[in-house]
C-alpha cells in the first residue's frame, strides 16, 4: 500500500504526486493570492549559465525521497474529514491553527501547526487572516483538496514512566460535502482516501440536518457502505467493523438554534473563570450526541447515530460539542448570554463579530493522534 496518495488523482493516472501539495489555489480561503514560486527560484526553469556550470566529479544529488520531505511513515497520520455540505468542514480546518495557538490558555503547553508546502502554509495563513481580520467564513468547497501539515505538541505523559512530545505530519483532505453523495463522480476516490485513513473526524451539523438538501444521513450512509465494502475486501475489518478511530464533532455549538435548546435541556455548564465559556462536560458529550439525534433532531438523525455505532467499534468513537468560531464575547472577553451570537449578516454576507475562540477544535485531532499512537506502540497492525 502506498503512503503517497493524492485524493485528487485518479487511481489509473500513474504514480501519485506529492500528497503534501494542495490540489489547487482555488481551494484557498477567499482573498488568497495565487501561490508564488519560492524566492530562490526553485520550481522555475534553470538559468542557462547555471546548467553549464557543472563541477567535474561532484556527486550527483538525487531528488529527496518522500521520507526525507515528510518524515517517516510512522510520523504520518492520515485523517479523513467527513460531513454533509455546509456542515463546517472547511471552517473547522481554517480554525485549527487559531485553536492551536490558543490551546495553552487552558492547558499546559501549546501546539504549533505549519504547512509542509508553500501552498499548505498559504492555506493556514490565509485562513487565520480570513477568520481574525476579515471575520468571514470560507467559501463553499469544490471537489477534493488534500494537504499536509506538520503538527507539534507539548510534552505529555506516555504510560506510567515515559513522556513524549507529539510530532506528526497530518495528511488531511477537505472535500465538498456533495462528494459524499452516492452518485458523485469523485466519491470512489474519496472512499479510497477514507479507507487509507487512520482516523476520521465526522462533523454532525444539527442546523443543516434540519434541511432536506443537507440532511446528514444522505451524506453518511452510501459512503459508509462503500467504505465498509472496500475495507472488507482488503481484509481489514476488525470483528466485522471498521478499524478507524473516530471523533464525532457535534458542530456549531454556538449557533442559537443549537445552543439555546442545549442550555434549556440542561446539557451545558459554564466556566467560572476566564471568559466563562459554556461547554458540555466531556463525560456527557456522548449522551449529548444521542439526545441531539434522538430527541432534538428526529428519525433520520437517529439513523446517523445507529449507522456510526454499527460501522465502528463504539469504544473507538469519542464525541465533542464543537464550534469553529466560538461565541461572541463582550469587550471584557467574557461570555454574555444576552448577546452571544457570533455570525451576523452584513450586506448579505455572514461576518464574525469577535475574534474567534474555537471550542473543541484541537481536541478531536489531539485525541485521535494519541489513540493512533497508542495502537502503534502496542504493535497493532499498521493501517
Ligand atoms: N454558527 C456557526 N456557523 C458555522 C460554523 N462553522 C461553519 N458555519 C456556517 O456554516 C457554513 C458552511 O461552512 P463550511 O466550513 O464552508 O462548510 P463545509 O462543510 O466546508 O461546506 P462544503 O464545502 O460546501 O461541503 C459557513 O458559511 C457558516 O455560515 C460555526 O462554528 N458556527
Ligand atoms: Mg468546505
Tags for this model:
383 residues; alpha/beta; Rossmann fold; two-stranded antiparallel ribbon; 11 helices; 13 strands; 32% helix; globular; binds guanosine-5'-triphosphate; binds magnesium ion
Strand content: 15-25%
Main pleated-sheet profile: 7 strands, mixed
Q: Could you give the order of strands across the largest sheet? A: 2-3-6-1-7-8-11
Rough outline: globular
Order of helices and strands: HHEHEHEEEEHEHHEHEEHHEEEH
Descriptive overview:
This protein has 383 residues and is α/β, with parallel strands linked by helices. It has a single domain, classed as 3-Layer(aba) Sandwich (Rossmann fold), CATH 3.40.50. The protein contains 11 helices and 13 strands. It has helices at 48-52, 66-70, 89-102, 118-134, 187-196, 206-209, 216-233, 256-264, 285-297, 299-311, 362-377; strands at 76-83, 112-115, 144-152, 156-157, 163-164, 167-175, 199-204, 245-250, 269-270, 278-279, 317-321, 343-346, 349-352. It has a 7-stranded mixed beta sheet with strand order 2-3-6-1-7-8-11, sandwiched between helices. Strands 4-5 form a two-stranded antiparallel ribbon. Strand 4 and strand 5 (163-164) form a beta hairpin. Helix 9 (285-297) packs antiparallel against helix 10 (299-311). The chain is globular and about 70 Å long. The chain starts with 47 loop residues before the first helix and ends in a 6-residue tail after the last helix. Guanosine-5'-triphosphate (GTP) binds at residues 83, 85-91, 137-138, 140-141, 176-177, 252, 254-255, 323-325, 343, 350.
Amino acid at each position: 500500500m502506498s503512503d503517497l496518495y493524492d485524493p485528487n488523482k485518479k487511481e489509473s493516472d500513474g504514480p501519485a504526486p506529492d500528497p503534501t501539495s494542495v490540489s489547487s489555489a482555488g481551494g484557498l480561503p477567499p482573498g488568497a493570492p495565487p501561490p508564488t514560486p519560492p524566492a530562490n527560484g526553485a520550481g522555475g526553469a534553470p538559468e542557462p549559465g547555471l546548467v553549464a556550470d557543472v563541477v567535474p566529479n561532484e556527486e550527483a544529488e538525487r531528488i529527496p525521497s518522500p521520507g526525507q520531505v515528510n518524515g517517516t511513515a510512522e510520523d504520518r497520520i492520515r485523517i479523513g474529514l467527513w460531513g454533509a455540505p455546509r456542515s463546517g468542514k472547511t471552517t473547522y480546518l481554517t480554525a485549527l491553527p487559531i485553536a492551536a495557538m490558543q490551546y495553552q490558555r487552558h492547558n499546559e503547553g501549546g501546539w504549533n501547526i505549519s504547512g509542509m508546502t508553500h501552498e499548505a502554509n498559504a492555506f493556514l495563513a490565509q485562513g487565520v487572516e480570513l477568520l481574525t481580520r476579515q471575520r468571514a467564513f470560507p467559501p463553499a468547497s469544490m471537489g477534493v483538496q488534500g494537504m499536509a501539515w506538520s503538527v507539534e505538541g507539548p510534552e505529555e505523559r506516555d504510560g506510567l514512566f515515559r513522556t513524549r512530545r507529539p510530532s506528526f505530519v497530518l495528511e488531511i483532505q477537505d472535500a465538498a460535502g456533495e462528494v459524499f453523495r452516492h452518485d458523485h463522480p469523485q466519491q470512489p476516490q474519496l472512499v479510497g482516501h477514507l479507507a487509507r485513513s487512520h482516523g476520521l473526524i465526522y462533523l454532525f451539523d444539527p442546523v443543516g440536518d434540519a434541511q432536506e438538501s443537507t440532511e446528514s444521513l444522505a451524506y453518511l450512509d452510501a459512503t459508509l457502505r462503500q467504505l465498509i465494502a472496500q475495507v472488507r475486501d482488503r481484509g481489514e475489518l476488525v470483528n466485522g467493523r471498521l478499524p478507524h478511530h473516530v471523533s464525532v464533532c457535534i458542530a456549531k455549538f454556538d449557533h442559537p438554534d443549537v445552543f439555546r435548546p442545549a442550555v434549556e435541556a440542561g446539557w451545558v455548564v459554564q466556566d467560572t473563570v476566564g471568559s466563562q465559556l459554556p461547554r458540555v462536560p466531556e463525560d456527557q458529550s456522548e449522551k449529548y450526541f444521542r439526545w441531539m439525534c434522538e430527541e432534538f433532531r428526529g428519525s433520520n438523525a437517529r439513523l446517523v447515530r445507529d449507522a456510526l455505532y454499527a460501522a465502528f467499534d463504539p469504544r473507538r468513537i469519542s464525541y465533542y460539542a464543537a464550534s469553529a468560531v466560538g461565541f461572541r464575547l463582550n469587550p471584557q472577553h467574557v461570555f454574555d448570554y444576552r448577546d452571544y451570537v457570533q455570525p451576523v449578516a452584513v450586506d448579505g454576507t455572514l461576518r464574525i463579530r469577535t475574534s474567534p475562540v474555537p471550542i473543541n477544535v484541537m481536541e478531536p485531532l489531539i485525541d485521535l493522534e494519541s489513540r493512533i499512537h497508542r495502537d502503534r506502540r502496542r504493535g497493532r497492525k499498521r493501517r
